[in-house]
Amino acid sequence: MLKKIRICLFVCFSLIFSLLVVADEHDSAPTQVSLLYRIQPGDVLNISVWGEETMQYKELRVLPDGTLSYPLTGVIEVKGKTIGEVSQLIAEKLKVFIPEPNVNVMVHAAEGNLAYVIGKVTKSGPISLLQDTTVLQALSLSGPFDKFADKSAIKIIRLHGGQQELIKFDYDEVSKGDNLNSNIFLKPGDTIVVP
């Protein structure tokens, strides 16, 4: 009986250890994003050229102006481009030095595509926009409203061409199925204010 208990404990500990190792590996893995994902300032990229050991660069951060420096290409504009477009752009510039370069670009961390929720919610702070996210979805990620929150006076502040735009959002209306046009898709840099 004691032998069976020891075997059972050994199997349980082995399973727990393997799950912890898998979780640890998952935390350090690149962010899984769609091929249609548009790169933003603040994102972190891994870029490599197949067969070129000296062209393997990890964790290159996109600068606030939307550019990135990569060897032999100089400064390149990557903001708003997909992973495929950036790969193609780098490959074109490298053709002068490397015949038929095979460039691989991966998003290590999508830190540039953030919106923010502030005010009377349980969890205020940044929200990653790894996929199309509406105001209602962002609010659901922020936890329940504070009991004093004015859900009918929520505002979205959006930077648009150097100007700030104010968009009104009435949670009570939208949750009833009314005024669904106000449940817009968020853009990087949007701030939802819950008064």
Describe this structure in words.
The chain is α+β, with helices and mostly antiparallel strands and 195 residues long. It has 2 domains: 66 residues, 2-Layer Sandwich (wza like fold), CATH 3.30.1950; 81 residues, Outer membrane lipoprotein wza domain like (Outer membrane lipoprotein wza fold like, Roll), CATH 3.10.560. It is 26% helix and 28% strand. It contains 4 helices and 10 strands, in the order αββββαβββαββαβ. The strands form 3 sheets. The protein has a 5-stranded mixed beta sheet, with helices on one face. β6 and β7 form a beta hairpin. It is elongated and about 60 Å long. InterPro entries: Poly_export, Poly_export_N. This is Polysaccharide biosynthesis/export family protein. Keywords: Signal.
User: What is the strand content?
Assistant: 25-35%
Question: What structural category arises from helix and sheet content?
Answer: alpha+beta
Count of helical regions: 4
The CATH homology group name of the largest domain = Outer membrane lipoprotein wza domain like
Low-confidence stretches: 4-27
Helix content: 25-40%
End-to-end gap: 62 Å
The topology string of helices and strands comes to: HEEEEHEEEHEEHE
Basic shape: elongated
Walk across the major sheet and give the strand order. Answer: 7-6-10-8-9
Instruction: Report the C-alpha radius of gyration, rounded.
Output: 23 Å
Mean pLDDT: 84
Second CATH tier, the architecture of the largest domain: Roll
What number of domains? 2
Largest sheet: 5 strands, mixed
CATH class of the largest domain: Alpha Beta
Number of E strands: 10
CATH topology of the largest domain: Outer membrane lipoprotein wza fold like
